[in-house]
Amino acid sequence: MNYLHDVTALARKDLLLELRGRDTLPAMLLFVIAMLVVFRFALPAEASKDATGGLLWVAILFTALLGLTRAFVPEREQRVLDGLVLAPSDRSAIWLGKVAATLAFLVAAEAVALPAYALFFGGLSWATLAAVVLADVGICTVGALLAAMAVAGRARELLLPLLFLPLAIPILVGGVGAGVTDEPGRYLGFLCLYDAVFAILAWASFEYVVTE
Amino acid sequence: MLFTGIALALLWAPEDADQGPSQRIFYLHVPIALTAYAGFAWGAWKALRLLWTGDSRYDLESYTGVHMGTIFGTLTLVTGSIWAKTSWGVWWNWGERQLVLFLVLFLFYGAYFMLRYSLADGPARARISAVYALFGVVLIPISFLAIRLAENFIHPVVFTREGPQMDGSMFFTFCVCLAGMLLLAGALYRNELTGKRLDARLRELREALA
Amino acid sequence: MSSGEKYLAAAYLVFLGALLAYVVIISAKLARIERELGELAELARERHG
Description:
Shape of chain C: rod-shaped
Oligomer: heterotrimer
Shape of chain A: globular
Structural class of chain A: mainly alpha
């Protein structure tokens, strides 16, 4: 109970910070719309449904990356992380709180991006929607951990995409596959597996990443 | 140990003289690939030990294991690419699962080195790289599964290339090659590890004297 | 020499080349360590002498 309380408190702190500063979310929204417009011109006019579906995933991935790059910046700038690590709560609560906050940002960005995609390119299948939800969980669990790693280094903005993209390839496969094939069940199942495996791993290992 | 590895490695040429030419790359390519996996697994095992015990000497061991894995992984990409050229006439083929997997792993472990170089020396770097190395071994099966699934929509024509049917003598040659390659990797690993430790010692000495 | 054999030779040569490159790197490293050790020995001698 105490653990959950810590998590919600940490997540709420991030959301309040965002409400006050409006640093991340507007940027993510504009970015994802801009990506979709850019893709519209990158594709031939009669591009197939499969191609646009893939591009939607690229847009989601890079938008998430934008949010994750910012995720630990306030902590690092104001040295909050050191204080949080010293606090008596379980350290993985920091990770879970961060996952919840980034997930909220990502879902908010997609709440705009997906209707926009449907408007620009027409139609979204339920399988894609389910895959987006599952992929969001995977992106945020892995991403929050990697963001904590990257922010400790010198080249933090540069590092996160390098760390993140190889790990995100399976998410991309699952997401695109669910959208373009006739049997999305296998791909959704694969996304669930990915989420479960990496959530456990990240939850167990986060403690070692933030300890000084 | 290095001599044993090289001596075994020299056994290849006479042993596989009676097979078709392009098939012979098999004896080089597959042991290299398996050795690369072994290197990654070794690095991850040492990483796990580091997190478990907090003993900082595992850091260099884990780093060297990953280092070996990456070198052999890069060699896998090169020899695999040559093999693809002989078998299908193209340098790169997205239907070849193992090669695609190694490309993903190459990117992943390239990022590992970037991460290491960007962090300041110390226990924090040891732990962060260890966690990332652990992610690597989990990523291997997940990516493999993903690449298999991706073939269904990226490549409508699935390449069902059965592994070469191995009879006794071929299998024996393969085992000798694999053992030789693993020994070679082990020797290189020890070598590299000693070199890295020597470097660290020298730095300590310099600081003590300065 | 058929093209298959050529590629085979290329594959083995790549491997050999990588091994040679490694040997070169190691020898360069050894030379550097030897030099540094010499400097340090000099330094230590000055301290005590």
